[in-house]
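Worked example 4.2. Below are the chains of a multi-component assembly; read each line carefully before continuing.
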Amino acid sequence: MESNSFFLMRNELILVGIAMILLVAEIFTKPEKKNGIITLAAVLFGLATVANFFPVPEGTLFGGSFITNPMTVFMKSVLNIGVFIVFLQSVTWLRKEENHGKISEYFILVISTLIGMNFMISSGDFLMMYIGLELATIPIAALAAFEKFHEKSAEAGIKLILTSALSSGILLYGLSFIYGTTGSIYFVDIVDKISSNPLQTFGLVFFVAGMAFKISLVPFHLWTADVYEGAPINITAYLSVVSKGAAAFTFMIILFRVFSAVTEIWQPLLYTLAVATMTVGNLFAIRQNNMKRFLAFSSIAQAGFILLGIMQGGELGMTTVVYFMLIYVFTNLAAFGVVSAISEATGKENITDYNSLYKTNPKLSLIMLLAMFSLAGIPPVAGFFGKFFLFTAAGAKGYYILVLIAVLNATVSLYYYLRVVKAMLIDKSDEPIGTFKTPWAMRASLLICVAGIFVIGFASAIYEYISSISFGIN
Amino acid sequence: MNILNLFVIIPVLTVLGIMFVKDYKGARMTAAIGMSLQLVAALVMTLMYFAERKAGASGEFLFYTDITWFKTLNIHYTVGVDSIAVWMICLASIVVFAGIFASWEVQYLSREFYISLILLATGVFGFFISLDLFTMFLFYELAVIPMYLLIGIWGSGPKEYSAMKLTLMLMGGSALLVVGLLGLYFNSSAAGPVTFNLLELSKINFPMAMQRFFFPFLFVGFGILGALFPLHTWSPDGHSSAPTAVSMLHAGVLMKLGGYGCLRVAMFLLPEAANEMAWIFLILTTISIVYGAFGAIWQKDLKYINAYSSVSHCGLVLFALLMMNKTAINGAVLQMISHGLMTALFFALIGMIYGRTHTRNVPEMGGLMAVIPFLGVSYVIAGLASLGLPGLSGFIAEMTVFVGAFAHTDTFHRVITIIATMSIVITAVYILRVVGQLLLGPLREKEYLEFPDARWYERLSLVVLILPIAIIGIYPAFLSGTLADAIVPIVERLTAML
Amino acid sequence: MNYSYTILILLIPIAAFLFNGLLGMKFKPIVSGLVGTIGLGIVFLLSWYTAWQYFFVGGMVDGEFPKIIAMSMDWLQFTDKLTIRMGIMLDPISVMMLVVVSSVSFMVHIYSLGYMKGEKGFERFYSFLSLFSFSMLGLVVATNIFQMYVFWELVGISSFLLIGFYYQKPSAVAASKKAFIVTRFADLGFLIGILLLSFFTQTFDFTTLTGADHSIFESGAAKSFMGMSVFTWACLLIFMGGAGKSAMFPFHIWLPDAMEGPTPVSALIHAATMVVAGVFLVARMFPVFFFQAPDALEVIAYVGGFTSLFAAIIACTQYDIKRVLAFSTLSQIGYMILALGVSGYEGHEGVGYMASMFHLFTHAFFKALLFLGAGAIIHAVHSNVMQDMGGLRKYMPITHITFLIACLTISGVPFLSAFFSKDEILVAAFHHNKLLFAVEYLVAGITAFYMFRLYFSIFWGKDTQYHHTPHEAPKVMTIPLMILAIGSIFAGYVPFAKLITADGRPFESHIDFAIAIPSVLIGLVGIGLAMLMYRKETHIPERISIALGGFYKTVYNKFYIDEIYLFITKKIIFNYISRPVAWFDRHIVDGTMNGIGWITLTSAKKIKGLQSGYLPQYGMVFALAAVVFVLIFAFLVR
Amino acid sequence: MIEGIPMTHVLIVSAFMFFAGICGFIIRRNMITILMSIELILNAVNINLVVFNKYLYPDQLQGQFFALFVVGIAAAEASVAIALIINIYRRLNSINVEQVNEMKY
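Applying the procedure described above to all four chains together yields the following structure tokens:
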């Protein structure tokens, strides 16, 4: 195949390139100059993010194991944006003394996981998918244990690596049966051979379980809270937005592409998972006091909503899911940004520490307020649109009861999102968090997030674009 | 440029304006100016509307504008008003205007206060003007959420609890609504693009099974906001904890969203199911009418008394709607407006009295009439309006409702109507009880003598509310005569299949 | 004949009300007093002029007095057919009522200038008076039943305001509340009655309802509910409203307490005008009652008869002079109601109707006179309990004379006004129902007795020592007394049978001496007894009361009706309905809502074990879930 | 390939390995052992892939390649895991998984 067709994997190549550059830079910069790497990485990555918005021809590589189409490109852009924001938010944290030696590791690891995710998304066969998956998982374990002198961080790392290994084992076991029954690992070949015989169902369910682990759907979610709590905040943000998003996209694409023949099996399966995920996620989130853990469970609940879109199985479903993820990136990162800003400045991470935050840091708490409302799906912020369209997708399938359950869950979730609002605006505190100045990078990231939260909802053009490039089951 | 857009634009601009002022003086001034403009716009719009009607403008909704928003989902920004909406908008702008002045003294986080208040107003106005169910729902939720902050931050008593309860219950209501709306949306056309547009939906005859399934969702969903028994309990706590202006707005306007929605969406779009299930909800509303009134008798807290009487009066609104004839629905609309005005007046007065006595517990007060005659007299007027004294709006509304409700020939409707009429006596009981204990009788405390009577802004907000009450009461024709163009199509659709 | 000027009769008082209510406190009190009085003076003249025009200039059209709609405007349209109109209807009774109301009201206005002098809230008093006059006049000229209801309520509220005029006096507040709520409850019946009637006849207008064409009633005539025809129900319910305003048993309880109001108010509202609204209502609807609901008419007759006896008995035992008068009012209104109940329609059959109106007319004068006189006395003695009085005839001669005239009149002494009217009533009763006749005959005697009990113990009896000697009331108060005295002497010579009859056609009426003489005699007996017992200070009353023992006590406590009401309201409604409702709402309904929240939170606590933080358990859950799902979806679901 | 061994037997073996691995993960307390049982699972997978390939689709090699990749990745995984375990050991002086539950609920 001619060389310029590598252009199809533009984003991946660019990312690899950045990783390399950083590696080299790491070697040739003096220890006291390391902070420069942060800027370098941020700038390079920003460029990459922008670059990926340029259109790409459709096509496949490596005999169909790598697929590129506008949708995958857009999904990658969504992830890029998320990662870029995360980078901006992690500047202060990286400048700390204890991380000084590990700056470039951080970037390289994150970028390599991102590469893995990109491959997952554009994968055309299960092998590519699996490699991407692992590439997207293993470095994260290292990242989770990044602050290796903190017990919690270490614990998070070990929990993540072991459980993910287990999950990938189970997933593989399922895939082995898919292969055995269909005789191929290529999506295009498998799709015709899929029927609802027990062995394939077995494979399907194990596959779903493995992906559910990544998206952290109940009951495969147990690692989530611990890892989120233990890992450094920015890693948590990365996990909860980017890695979850990538997994969701892949999951959706494969369900649509490969298992389109057996919707009558995986739709009820997802139905069950969705109900369980939303309910359990909410019930756990209600009780949390640690902000990170709280957001972990809230993100679990959100994952449950995503399933509503996936289940629809058509263009509408994909559109709503991608749209929701896009909004979710901005919203959730806004929340995490505030948390990390406060945590960097004061080391406080509990909801009760936020009491009367509005007095001292009105701007931060307003951003938090917006994020919370957007997560809860309150107009006029974008979250409302995202959620409502997901419900629409489910409604299109006639799952009205599911929609009812979902919306009631949304009401419950409103309860704990409002708890945060209450803490910041209503509750009085004896020693409130003092007024502090957030560094420029954090401001920039938060600004982007707020802009996103406000704009995406009203700008129907975005939605229209997504729906124009999205595809459903045949 | 469609005048209706003003009702969204003005509040938004006001909010932006408030963001850039320094102190509470600037904030309240900005808010006052904005809402005065709003009031003017509302009156102008009303005049224009009836001018066009007189000029022979046909079509259910005037000032109709339709802008495509989400093309693939066929979601539009569609606005238009009929006479009900027009009057509702007038009501809303009057109450908001009065509310701003009633909360003139708010200084703690005043900018935030006015911003959330006006956001709430935005939601209300948007709800009344929009004809696309999606935007309608958007504005509906927009109206509900600021309540949490307003009650939670500036409220009194167990404010966090009440605010949370109110928000969650109303959101639970909107949960039902989502299901109902989606049901309408996806059943709106077997082939071709589905739609949220009220007008197009109102042309469709939905299959009976679908109606049976979705009508309860829609009716109860809106009914919660209309304080439908037994889902009314957010109302007493919410109102009693809310700051003055918020109780005014909420009882005066927001609760009307419920009735309006029930009429405009639930009943209008799903007529057969409405006819079929009316009896269930009629029983419920009858209960809330009498039950609310009895509940009010026992209360000691002024706001609780009023909250329960609101339950009773709003129950009457739904009750009248479900009677499904021209007169009754006419009465329902009148009742919405009249109750909106007088309950706002009540809450304004309660706030002002509370500001002086620092208690809302009736037995702890007495003889206030002697020291604050203006407030006292206004309170008596409000009370008389609410017990249906001729010459004030309440009488007009209630009589229309009863006459309309009585036009049903079967015993069931007769009996519940008579039960409902009982409420006017019970109302008299608790109103006079309060007036007697609170205002009349010997002066209870010495320090009452220092109380100042109503200040100018207080007088303004009271007069703004009293005037329409009196005008409607003295010359009702100008209001009740103009609703036909909105009600006739609804009634025709409701009675088409009978 | 153009009567459009009659609109002024309504406009002037309401204007006075608005002026005094909004601007009154800006001026000196006397200003508002004069505004009100002069306004009412004009109304007074207009009313008499109208009466003159109507009866003697306009006169009869083909043998009967026409119902003239002087003006009418649509006010509120319910349906195509049912519309409330605000208008003025002139027919014999409404014109007669115009005269009565405006005259008494005018007198009271003048009188109050003296009586209320220096009172706090003078202008408020006058604005309320004007409001009342407006509502009452509007009531009597109502063209349709709903307009009547509207003004009916307004009358009620102005009575409420006036009773509670001394709003810092708890007893006054309580009384006003009681009055309003009791009448309000009765009005509920009125309203439902209107709804019933209007639904079946599809009209509110009196002209249609009472017209000769009875076809409108056909739709409902067949229908019956619990054995009574719809219209019987409607009429009874409407009468319930009337009974409430006219304080018929069992709604009488508010009237005695209403005496907490200033005395002129009692004279105006609770003697002459408002309390006869019930009578007026029945008279107004008389054809409907007579043709559609004769059994309702029967009920009315008995209610009237019973009330008059009942009230008369209580009156004998009261010591508060205003209460005595109040009870006498009850019993006199009982007379009128009864007269209507026993009346026929055609020609001399309708004598009851005529008599009732006649008595209403005369009663207005002498009862107003009595109250105003009582007012003068209270003004002088600063007490309204008999025991504090006695021998006042020396101090206040004019009051004495006028009061005596009034007492004689009410006792039916020949050639004073009430003699004629009462005689007619007795005649009507006699021809209709002997039992009721006997009752009324007895009541005539009792009336004479308690009135003179009152008279003697005030003006004669013991010579009380007053710490400051009572003085005669000022001119402004005595002049109305005299005018009313003249009225109550000569009102009887108005030829009512020629003017105001059931079917609007005059008939010959003549004193029936067979009934008149005995009634006069029993009246004289009553007077004699009273003179015996109270002329000088004696111990007869005590002995009698002791002799009667329990009965006396019961009567003195007004047969404990109030207590029964109190029991019903306080105990039943408050404790056994309202309180449980409140409790239910807080604990059951609200409890459920909170319960849902509680369940959510506790379940959240319960399931926290799932997240044990213990790695193998995570793995187990993971694997088990996967396997279970496989089992379900590979083997169950298909 | 060995003659006479039906595919099902091999599959049963791999299934046993798989569930052994699962049980090991659940029962064992020593992290290294847990890691080993994961390896067990992965090897079960490998057997599956290879067997399927060999018995059913002898004319292609997808399964075997897949197996190779799995082996490789398993190695990477193991290395990272062990590094983390060592890290844990430094913190807690123990690699007993029961001690690693500071974060819960």
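Take a moment to check your reading of the output against the notes. Chain B has a mean pLDDT of 88. The two ends of chain B are 42 Å apart (CA to CA).
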